[in-house]
Design goal:
By secondary structure, the chain is mainly α. Helices cover 74% and strands 0% of the residues. The model has no long low-confidence stretch (mean pLDDT 88).
Amino acid sequence: MQLFEKLFGKRIPKQTPVDEVRQIIERFTTATHAGVDAEDIGRYPHKQRKVMAFHFGALEYLTKAYDLDETGELAVFVMFIDKYFNLPVKETGSISELLESFASNTDEQQYLEAGIDVFRRWHEQDERRAPLQLGEMLQRG
């Protein structure tokens, strides 16, 4: 019987680090959405970029913890952008421009750094209300 199950039984594929990081980022994104006006973000591209920078900061922190390379990090970010901002995958060439903007734009850099800090507090220190900081930041400007 065990031989039969071993040969023909259902196999659960092992999760990759990229899969694990993607799942954690999705849970974090769900937590940040509680404090954000989604319609407001949809109307204002500059707010979209701030939200993307915030989540990329969280992703940077998490990819370092999982020792992912740049390819893995970009793969998760493209999945994030595609899922939450409906950016077609064929337009992902602009991802590198987006990431450069996060590094060079002072306002977006602040959101990226806040994303790192908020994610760390949420993930490691179990501060469940920390992700609401994104909404507060967006309301201030």
